[in-house]
Write a structure and sequence with these properties.
The chain is α/β, with parallel strands linked by helices. It has six helices and five strands; from the N terminus they run H-E-E-E-H-E-H-E-H-H-H. Helix 4 crosses helix 5.
Amino acid sequence: MAPDKKNAEDLGAHIVFIDESGFMLIPPVRKTWAPRGQTPIHHCHQLHDRISVISGISVSPSRKRLGLYYSLYQDNITQVEVCDFLRYLLMHLRGAVIVVWDNGRPHKGQMIRDFLRKYPRLHLEAFPPYAPELNPDEGVWSQAKTTLANGRPDNVHELWWHLLDTLDAMTVSPSCLRACVHNSELPLFLS
């Protein structure tokens, strides 16, 4: 269960909502406009090349400022990449850090337990099973996939750069990050 507001403030802890997603060369399809009788046809590659991304929306303990941290990978995300990302977060966030995430396979195992013992200022909490609507980080994927909708990068290199541009733009946009939090079903704590 997610930590409540008072506990996070007592700890002076950053709360970070983490999730992973994959992006393929096959574009997501969204509704679009076209002249009557002229159904738009989008040609795409049937390649299954992909980029995996892990990100976290952080909430600062006192001012409730939002931040976005992310890492891109060419392979599926495993415990190794999760530990690398957690280390990256700890380098950028001072004090206690409470990570709230799902019960995905890369979030469990001996490597994660060893990591927790090495970094006692890190605390892990899990969302209830099958509750992606509670995770504000799902909004990052929704916004990123919307920018790819009905279009297509020609190769993984173009997809990589498109994702970097999109995520960098979100990183400097407090309104985009706030929308991710407010569009989740997490009880509002950013009033």
